[in-house]
Amino acid sequence: MAYYLGVDIGSGASKGVLMADTSTVAIYSLRTGVNYRLAAEKLRTELLAAAQVKAEDVAGTIATGQGAGMVDYADGQAADIRCCARGMNSIFPQVRTIIDVEGQSTQVMRVSGTGQVINFVISEKCASGAGRFLEIIGNVLQIPLEEIGALSLKSNNPVVFTTACAVFGESEAVSRVAEGVSKEDILAGVHKALADKIASLVDRVGMEPECGICGGGALNAGLVEWVQRRLGIKLLVPPQPQLVTALGAAIFARETRKDSLS
Amino acid sequence: MSREVTSIYFAGIDLGSTMTKVVIIDDSEKVLGSVVQHTGAEHRRLANRVMEEALQEARVSIADIAYVIATGYGRINVPFADKQITELTCHARGVAYFFPKARTAIDIGGQDAKVLKIKDGKLIDFVMSDKCAAGTGRFLEVIAHALGLGLEDLGPLSLKSRRKVPISNICTVFAQQEVINHLSAGVALEDVVAGLHDAIAGRVARMARRLKVEPEVVFTGGVAKNVGVVKALEENLGCPVLIPSDPLLSGAIGAALIARQTVLKAQAEGKFVPVTGRKLEEASFFK
Predict the structure, then answer these.
(1) Which candidate from A11, A126, A164 shows the least CB-CB separation from B177?
(2) Most buried residue among A21, A60, A194, B242 by CB atoms closer than 10 A?
(3) Which residues neighbour A245 within 8 Å (Cβ) at sequence distance 6 or greater?
(4) How does pLDDT run across A94-134, given as a tens digit for each residue?
């Protein structure tokens, strides 16, 4: 049995997928912390232990994400956008537009039927265009990240944020709390702001159905709903959206290996 | 009975996003009293309190103030003001009071940064940035807080740096993460702080170059109190910058000077009617 490993070392979380030929046998994720090399090591150790596989049985490893260069055991690297596209394509072959919402960036890409990237746009300069904005406001309200999305959907009167900056947005949220505005309305406001930003990225890249959403941000069902409302369409959401990029990397590891053997 | 010209006074109040400043002058432009305090949520009540303190310092009664001009982001929340004027006009005037030959004024406040072109004490052009915390005092405030440092510690600390580390993120949130990564990789704190100062100075200097920087260059606002940013700004602009004795007060002084000018002009034209019995109303923001 040949094993293939895909590791995605992100700024917030590191994710890994271990495949035995075409099926996933182990997944693992952890907080990256400040030492990318250490996170990459721990990721492999945990994945191999979970699947009871020896390191020498892994036929190929592809690293991706911001810390890809720190994965000493990788055979190669691939751009996270390519991995994300490949991973989504393996789950939803019909997907043509992909929204990938990460902690520090959001990317929207158009992909072909074989999962190749045709065009993409990234928002990465500013926290207000990424999952971090939600995290910051959730923090102000002292509501765990897992709960903010559902709460935001209970609002009938979303707050309008007058600023496009996460830091100034945090101050606005504090002011709204002081004025007695409900947490639901504040959360709805910040989800709506992020959904607007995502929609503008989708417009720039040009939407072609079907459209899917992945990345850690897609774990937030509330955000998915706000984006759906904003775009007026249903989105394809994979069961473990945060692992899609690592999955794509594992698939590339297998395909690269196959190519070099043939 | 009309008062003697020598006994009238003028006030300027600058209600900023972070700090509120009041200046009282007499008719010879001499500063009699000045107060600087944190701006809280209750602007109106604060405006009254700060004004009262400045009056005490100046040993002047509110009834003797001939004219009050309010400026700054909260200027509409000053119940006792006769007129509101934008902070750009007041800054230009205040900067020229400190440095009559000033042609460029850079102001970095708690929530915005602006560059003013000045000629003969008058504003002729400006650029400002208030959409994003990067390049404002807030950038330093957020990161100093994350590092457990006081704002006043940053300047002296950064001067010890011998190898500043470049900060590549523009966004304050991401820069904060980057700083933590640098520190855990073993970079010295002073080198990181010097890098932050360079980042904010670089951003503001780029903005200033859009207007063409002409000497003399004056640097005001709360961030001008940070010697590290002053040094970084001089490096980025390639010229010295002048700092007023109190860099926070230029807007409030400008407002007071314009108040004086308004009254003197009206008096000369025989149109001035002094306000009598001006009071500081105890007003609440939440009424």
Answers:
(1) A11
(2) A194
(3) A6, A8, A15, A64, A65, A80, A83, A84, A87, A100, A214, A215
(4) 999 999 999 889 999 999 999 999 999 999 899 999 999 99
> How many domains is chain A built from?
2
Give pLDDT, residue B4: 46
SS3 for A84-109, per residue? Answer: HHHHHHHHCCCCCEEEEECCCCEEEE
Q: Is residue A254 located within the same domain as residue A220?
A: no
Q: From A136, which residue of chain B is nearest by alpha-carbon distance?
A: B173
* A121 and A80 inside one domain: no
Inspect the interface and report whether the beta carbons of A34 and B180 lie closer than 8 Å: yes
Rounded to the nearest integer, the mean pLDDT of chain B is 90
ipTM: 0.82
With an 8 Å Cβ cutoff, are B173 and A178 in contact?
no
Question: Which residues of chain B register pLDDT less than 70?
Answer: 1-7, 275-277, 281-287
A22 and A98 housed in the same domain:
no
CATH of the domain at A56: 3.30.420.40
Decide which of 3.40.1440.60, 3.30.420.40, 3.40.50.300, 3.30.479.30 is the CATH code for B5-90+249-268: 3.30.420.40
pLDDT digit string (tens) for A44-82? Answer: 999 999 999 999 999 999 999 999 999 999 999 999 999
A146-187 pLDDT, tens digit per residue, is: 999 999 999 999 999 988 899 999 999 998 998 899 999 999
In CATH, the number for domain B100-242 is 3.30.420.40
* Residues A16/A28, Cβ–Cβ less than 8 Å: yes
Token reading at A72 = 């000493």
CA distances from B211 to B78, B115, B125, B208 (A): 33, 8, 8, 6
| Nearest residue of chain B to residue A132 (CA atoms) | B173
From chain B, pick out residues whose CB is under 8 angstroms from the CB of A168. 111, 132-133, 138
Phi-psi region of B74 (alpha: psi -120 to 50; beta: other; left: phi over 0): alpha
Q: Is the pTM of this model over 0.80?
A: yes
What is the domain extent for residue A199? 93-237
Q: If you average pLDDT over every residue of chain A, what do you get?
A: 94
- For B108-135, the pLDDT digits (tens) are 998 899 999 999 888 999 999 888 999 9
- The confidence score (pLDDT) of residue A178 equals 86
Q: Which of B129, B167, B174, B179 to mutate to test the interface with A (most CBs of A within 10 A)?
A: B174
Of B171, B173, B184, the CB nearest to A34: B184
Residues A108 and A189 in one domain: yes
Pairing state between β B83-84 and B31-38: unpaired
Joined together, the tokens standing for residue A243 give 């692992």
